[in-house]
Amino acid sequence: MRHLLSTSELSRDAAIDLLDISEDMAAVADRENKKLPTLRGKTVVNLFFEDSTRTRISFEAAAKRLSADVINFSAKGSSVSKGESLKDTAQTLSAMGADAVVIRHGASGAPAVLAASGWIDAGIINAGDGTHEHPTQALLDAFTMRRRLHGAGSRGKGLDGVSVTIVGDIVHSRVARSNVWLLKTLGAEVRLVAPATLLPVAVHTWPVTVDYDLDHALGESAPDVIMMLRIQQERMNQAFFPNPREYSNVWGLSNARWIGLPATTLVMHPGPMNRGLEISSAAADSPQSTILEQVANGVSVRMATLYTVLTGNREVHA
Amino acid sequence: MSAPRFLIRGAQIGSGSATDILTQGNVIAAIGSGLDSAGAEIIDAHGLIALPGLVDLHTHLREPGYEQSETVLSGTQAAAIGGFTSVFAMANTNPVADTAGVVEQVLALGEAAGYATVRPIGAVTQGLEGMHLAELGAMASSRAQVRVFSDDGKCVSDPLLMRRALEYVKSFNGVIAQHAQEPRLTEDAQMSEGEVSARLGLAGWPAVAEEAIIARDVLLAEHVKSRLHVCHLSTAGSVEVIRWAKARGINVTAEVTPHHLLLSEDRAETYDARFKVNPPLRRREDVLALREALADGTIDIVATDHAPHPSESKECEWGAAAFGMIGLESALSVVQESMVETGLFTWDDVARVLSITPARIGGLASHGQMLAVGAPAEITLVDPHDRQVFTTDRLAGQSHNSPYLGIDLPGRVMWTIHQGYATVAGAKLIATDIIAAQAEEVRRG
Prior knowledge:
Chain A is of the alpha/beta class. Chain A has helices at residues 12-29, 53-65, 79-82, 86-95, 110-117, 135-150, 174-185, 214-220, 244-251, 255-259, 281-284, 291-311; strands spanning 43-48, 69-74, 100-105, 123-129, 163-167, 189-193, 209-211, 225-228, 266-268. In chain A, the strands form two sheets. Chain A has a five-stranded parallel β-sheet. Chain B has 445 residues and is an alpha/beta fold.
C-alpha cells in the first residue's frame, strides 16, 4: 500500500490485513516496553492545515511507538490565505526527506492531489480531508467493532451481517463516507439516519438504507452498532435544521432512546461529542459505549497504517 | 483593385465537393475548379475542409487587468491557431468592461494585434455587481458598437434588473447573454451535484440552479418581447426549457461549450483542477442530451468560454483552484470528435454553429458568411484526417489550463485567413510583427 487516501480503494483482504496488523500493534501496547524499532530512521510529517489535536497526537504516538522521527507541521488556514501553496509546502517537506506525510486538510481531495502531484515522493496518509474521507477513523471504528463482537477471535474476520446505524450530519461528514465504504467492504449492513437536508441528494446511489426518522429506524430492528456523529450548531444558520433543540429531540441519542436499546448495541462516537445534543451523557458513559476504546484503538490502527505504507508490506494489496 | 492573394486548391467547402478558392484583397474573388493562380500564393488544400472563419461568442481575453493569464494579443493568437477569425471578449476584466472607454480600449488592442476581429461584450451591470445597469447605450454607440451584454462569471440574478436590461437593449437591437446560475443555490459549489459530488465530498452545483434561471429569463424575454442568449447550457433540463421556449416563439438562442459536449463529471474523481469549470461538467446523460440538442438546432451555437488561468491557480487543491479551462485552440477538434465523428453533424453544420450563427447573434456582419464570391476572406482550412494526442505544442495562448492535454483528438487547423491575410500557415502561427503590419495595411485600406 503506497498511500491511504480513501477506504473505497481497500479490498476486503487489504482491509482485514490492516485490522490484523492493528491487533499486533495493540498487543505491543500491553507490553512493558511499548516501543518497536520498525520505523527507525524514517521521518513522518504530520501536516495539519486544520486544528485537530486528537488526530495529530494519535498519529504522533503511533509513529513514535514505531521509532520513527516525527515532525509536526501546523499550516493552519487555507493555502491561499496563508500565502504558501500546497505545492510549495509539499516540495519543502520533500526536500527535508519526509518518508510519509500524514495530512489533514480542509479541502476535499487535498491528499489525493498531493499523492498524484509528483511534488513529493512520500507515502500520503489521509488524516481527514474536507467533507471527503477520514480513512483511519473508519479503520479504528471497524477495529473497535470487531474486537467487541469477536474478542480474541477477531483475526481474519470481517463484519459480515453486522448492522450499523450512523446518525447525524452525513452530507458534511468525512467519517460517515469512510465508514460507509469500509463497512460495506467488510460485509456490514449500513443504515443512515438523518434529516434529508443532512444527506447527499444522491444518497440512493450508496450501498446503504436510509431513514429520516430515528425512532422508526430503531423500532424496526435494534442495530448491533449505533454511531452518532457530531452536529455543528452553525448548520442551523444555513437552514439544515431549525435549531439544536429540535435536532436533539428528533435525531439525538437521548436517555429514552438509549434505554430502549438492547444491552448488546454498541454506542460509538468519533468525538469530540456535544453531550446533550447528539448524545446523552448516560449513553456516552455507558458500558456499551466504545468512545474511549476508539481513542486507544486509534493509535494501534495508525501504527498499522504507518507500518504498511512505510514498509511497503506486500501482503497488503490495496 | 488589389492583387490576387491566395489560391486555395482542392479544398472541400463545408460538406460540398472539392474546389479552388481565389482571394483578392480581403474578399473571395472566385470559386471553381482549375482557377488561374494569377500570381497568387498557392495553398495545396487537397483533403482539407474550408469553413468560414470561426467566430467565438464567448471568450475571456483577461486584458485589461489579468495579463498574467492572457492578453488581447495572446488570446487572439490562441484564437487564430484554433481557426477563429473573430472573438467576443467577455466583460469581466479589471476594470470591468462597463463603460465606453474600456470597450474601446479592448477593441483597439484587437485591431492593433491583427490576429482576429475582437468584439467587446459590455457588462450588464456596473462592476458586474448586479446592482445598477452599466452604460449600455454609451457602449452601444461607442466605436466598439457593443451589441452583446453579459455579466458572465456572475448571473444577473435580480429578476427586475434582468427585465430592465432586456427591455433597455431593444433600442439598439442588443442581446443579453445570461450566465444562468442561481447564486443562493450554488454557494461554495465545487462541482455538479449528484453521485460523484456525494462521493468526493465536494459541495454540489445542482442542475436546478441553472434551469430555474433559464426558465425565468425566457418568460421575461417573452413578456418584454426582447432577445435573450443563454450562455453555456450544461444540463438536459436546460435543453428542455429552451426547446419549450423556442416552440412558444420566444426570441432565445443558446450556446454550449466544447467541454460540455465531450467531458463528464467523473473527470473530477482525481481532483485534477483542470476539470474544475463553471458551469461544472455534468453527467454522461447531460452530455448526450446537449449533443442531440445541438444537432436538432435547439442549441444554436458552440462557444468556447475560453478561460485562461496561470498554473498556480490550477496546481492546487480543488477547492482553492480557479474555475475555467481554455478552449480556443481545441474547440474545432472537440466539436469534430463529439459531433462529426459521432455522425450527428456534417461540416456544414460545423460552419453553422461555429461561424454563421454566432456572427448573426453577435451582429457581426463582416464574419460568418458562407464561402462564396464576394464574401469576406475569413477562411479556416482544417485537416479532418489528422488525429493525435493533444499537447501543449498545440497551445498558442499564455495559459495551459486545457483539460484535453494527453487526450487523443481529431482534426487540425492548417490555415487561418483573416481579412485576406494568413494568421496561421501550415498549422504554424505567423509572427506578431508581420500580422500587426498586415492589419495596419488593411486599416489604411
